[in-house]
Amino acid sequence: MPERETIERARAREGKSPSTQAGEFVREEMHHIREGKHGAASTKQAIAIGLSKARRSGVKLSPPRRGKTSASTRQKAESDFRKGQSHSRRTPSSRRSRATSNALKRKGHSAASHASLSKQARTAARNRGSSSRRSAARKASRTRKHARGQQESNQSILATRKEHRKAQP
């Protein structure tokens, strides 16, 4: 069950892309592993747990398309998505929850280390095309707050320069 704080943080990102909202749940998962609440077999598993929690919490993150992942992964993502979109009041099986928690507690904690996260990011990026990476980087630089402020200050500098040039004889 995601923490209330995470759900609120994800809700604050409403209006942004679902992957941005889901990122909050992945972030929470990494914190859980780092603080020793449980472990994960790999960084990929830790991310998958976070995405699953996001889908189950109602984030409109669509399941992966055919050919992207295995059939079982896609089915799990589809069931998580359906569960998040329907507001059923069924309580989860305590026995199953306990079994999952105990299994994760036996796993290591290096899955959330900075090194393994950066390694995962690099391998994920390598699987994408160069043009896809380039466009993502450009979009990131456009949407970054600092960059937006920088653009505005650059424009004001240029405007000031124009005024000074006009003023010179």
How would you describe this protein?
- The longest helix is centred in the C-terminal third of the chain and has 23 residues.
- This protein is elongated.
- The chain is mainly alpha-helical and 169 residues long.
- It is built from eight helices and no strands.
Secondary structure elements and their pairing?
Elements lengths: L3 H9 L5 H17 L8 H14 L14 H15 L8 H12 L8 H13 L3 H14 L1 H23 L2
Q: What percent of the residues sit in helical stretches (DSSP H or I)? A: 55-70%
Order of helices and strands: HHHHHHHH
Q: Beta-strand percentage?
A: under 5%
C-alpha end-to-end distance:
70 Å
Helix/sheet category: mainly alpha
**Shape from CA axes?**
elongated
- Quaternary class: single chain
Q: Average the pLDDT over all residues and give the rounded result.
A: 88
Number of strands: 0
Please compute the radius of gyration using only Cα atoms.
21 Å
Please, how many helices?
8
Please tag this protein with its features.
mainly alpha, 8 helices
